[in-house]
Design a protein that fits this description.
Structural class: alpha/beta
Helix content: 25-40%
CATH superfamily: P-loop containing nucleotide triphosphate hydrolases
Largest sheet: 6 strands, mixed
Order of helices and strands: EEEHEEHEHHHEHEHEE
Number of strands: 10
CATH class: Alpha Beta
Strand order of the largest sheet: 6-7-8-3-9-10
Distance between the termini: 25 Å
Radius of gyration: 18 Å
Number of helices: 7
Strand content: 25-35%
CATH architecture: 3-Layer(aba) Sandwich
């Protein structure tokens, strides 16, 4: 059983109000998100579920500063990012947000520790010594004996854990994961979720996981369900309780 964290004394690290994303498709406008209000606190593990096309990845992209909302506002770690320039968003992504995707996107020619160290080398003010930090994270995720291996020498689950370590390289307060177990078998997927719990418990990272796998969602502290671009409750009605700060 995942420990449930008391949010009462924890600051909000992700806040969205009236978040809307409209995508023009010829003469038609697709409403990917429709006025989402959202609050996620420090140290929470939150699952986001819903049918295909419900807006899960769109929401994650907006939280991560990969896209901009059509309407509404979004704040990350107390900073409003709604109208930031691309350069400003790039700085936020480097310092505040780590990304984990279904496909690992590791650089084949680099070792595990070199892949993990890479984001630190791109930081404007590197917070760690790159290789020392890479070794620390790989050790924490049970990959101490695999850090000199290249991606082709690692299993899928090991590659995903390297990708998680890379996402944590600059110690961001937020980790966003889009179907992180979708390309793995059940055992490897469970190892990835176990890694998330370790990260949350040892570092205090806030983790948001988009998933279609119910056994993954059940291990989160809280689950948000998106349907047609809206957060809904168990009865499929627009949800308010527990969503706002």
């Amino acid at each position: 059983m995942v420990p449930k964290h008391n949010n009462g004394s924890r600051p909000a690290v992700i806040e969205a109000k009236g978040l809307t994303r409209e995508l023009p498709l010829g003469k038609v406008v697709i409403h990917a998100l429709c006025g989402v209000d959202l609050c996620i606190h420090a140290g929470e593990m939150v699952g986001v579920v819903g049918p295909s096309g419900s807006g899960k990845s769109t929401l994650l992209g907006l939280i991560g500063g990969l896209d901009s909302p059509t309407h509404g506002t979004i704040a990350i770690d107390g900073v409003d990012i709604t109208h930031m320039s691309e350069n400003q968003l790039a700085e936020i992504r480097n310092q505040k947000i780590g990304f984990v995707f279904q496909f690992f996107n590791l650089i084949p020619s680099l070792t595990a520790e070199e892949n993990v160290a890479l984001p630190i080398q791109f930081a404007s003010h590197p917070p760690f010594k790159p290789m020392a930090r890479a070794r620390e994270l790989l050790d924490m995720l049970g990959l101490a004996d695999r850090r000199r291996h290249r991606p082709t020498e690692l299993s899928g689950g090991e590659q995903q854990r390297v990708a998680i370590a890379r996402a944590l390289a600059n110690n961001p307060p937020i980790l966003l994961a889009d179907e992180p177990s979708g390309n793995l078998d059940t055992a490897a997927g469970e190892m990835v979720i176990s890694a998330f719990r370790t990260i949350r418990d040892e570092i205090g990272t806030t983790i948001v996981v988009v998933t279609h796998e119910h056994h993954i969602a059940e291990q989160m502290d809280r689950v948000l369900t998106l349907v047609d671009g809206r957060i809904v409750d168990a009865q499929g009605q627009p949800a308010r309780s527990g969503v706002l700060c």
